[in-house]
Design goal:
Elements (H helix, E strand, L loop, with lengths): L2 E6 L6 H14 L2 E8 L21 H18 L14 E4 L4 E2 L1 H8 L4 E5 L10 H10 L4 E4 L10 E5 L4 H9 L1 H6 L2 E7 L9 H10 L4 E6 L6 H11 L4 E5 L5 H7 L2 H8 L4 E4 L1
Parallel strand pairs: 1-2, 1-5, 2-3, 2-4, 5-6, 7-8, 7-10, 8-9, 10-11
Antiparallel strand pairs: 6-11
Helix pairs in contact: 1-2, 3-4, 8-10
Length: about 280
Amino acid sequence: MKTVFVPLDDPEVSRPIIETGLLFARRFGSYVEGAATLPVLDNYIVGEMVPLWPPQQRSMGDIAREAFEMFSSVMTRAEVPARERVGGEGLCQGWHEPPLLGDGAVASHARVFDVTVLGRPMNGAGGPRLSLLETVVFESGRPIVITPPDPPTTLGDNVVIAWNCSTETARTTALAMPVLHQAKRVTVLTVEEGTVPGPTGAEMARTLRINGIDAEPVTISAKSKTAGEAILDFAENLNADLLVKGAYTQSRLRQMIFGGATSHILSAARLPVFMAH
């Protein structure tokens, strides 16, 4: 996890995203790169019919400049040196020019980073966009960390894996191994009502222990809750500071119509989420 990408699509809500990216980068002594991203017409998706531009009618140049200034202020205050990390050790940062036009360009650039940090999507015209998050998840081939509205103070010490036995969660857990190796506590959580056919949480925990990670399997019933609600409630009660979750075991359209754990977590998580598809 030596390269961290932080694309910024709305400077007004970017500070928590930058701070979370920096927190993650500190953990691994990484190079963290910021970039302004500007939406284009093809950024509409089903279920997110919102204006493509914030109501302030700021120009593209203004938004790119504000994103750079916000990124630079956080890095300067944290005394992170501005240089590209090439070998060796040590936290450092840089800025990508020119701005990335469209969600596809962001996902393409994310392919050469170990992880991309994005904001949790918000309702309305402002804030992080669901279309950007989903494009990076499906087209980058890399994992993302989703930042809650309030930035965390720790990240990766107490990790919950939302194990639903799926291919997507198996892949996400494999991508999260560097984080899991550093964690002080790892819990493999299975919600009985939210699984697909596959290996149990106990089997996943055994594999992690063989890999040197002291993981504890826990199985719960959602009872009157949805699987997504049960996962978030469990993580909150455990004071977890990172949730590892495979994205969209069900299709996006099915989740939009019927609901699903991914959709609920994307709308309600108050802790960072490590996610991949």
